[in-house]
Design brief:
Blueprint: H1 2-13, H2 19-33, E1 38-47, E2 52-60, E3 63-68, H3 71-76, E4 83-84, H4 86-92, E5 120-124, E6 128-134, E7 138-142, E8 148-158, E9 162-168, H5 169-172, H6 175-185, E10 190-192
Parallel strand pairs: 6-10
Antiparallel strand pairs: 1-2, 1-4, 1-9, 2-3, 3-5, 6-8, 7-8, 8-9
Helix pairs in contact: 1-2, 1-4
Length: 193
Amino acid sequence: MTEFKTSLKQIKNNVERSNSQKISIFYQLCKEHNIEPIILRLSGDAKNRFTRSNYFITFTNTRIIISKKSNLRNLLDIGYIAGLGPYLYYLLSDKVDFEDIKTKDSFVQDLPSDSNSTKEFYIDYKEIEKIVFNHGIDTLITNMLGSAVNYNFLKIHTQKTLYNFNISAKKNGDYEKIFYWLKISLPIKIHKK
């Protein structure tokens, strides 16, 4: 891990590289060290015929992990929770010191061995045909305080399934910022409608 940290600091301190070049080198470094860092995380929900389920959508360097939130966690997530993973944020920002990064929060924990788990599953980037991130509109639905609820929409098209997620602007930030970070930080093309 010390070699990884040293290399990461060298990437950050190379002022001749653009952010997209730094990200590309970061992905190569992760592959060399066989590690899977959290790149970006969003909060979203999906509705089936009978219920609405809330999820964490975690992007790594190799896949997207969809984790169902517990009811308690969903109630406690009242504010802004989305963002870049710690290592990528360190690489692109001067606001964080390397020593402040918590290793346990920076890497993907092992998924359950049951691949049919309803609580957590993943989609390899190799399986994805297209990801579309659409700008939502202010809806007529209001919350208890009477303000409009704004959602953006993330669609993940695979060869077998279409995954639709409503991405709350309140919990994830505005559309342009999210789209920018999806576009610049992921190893797959993001489309806009």
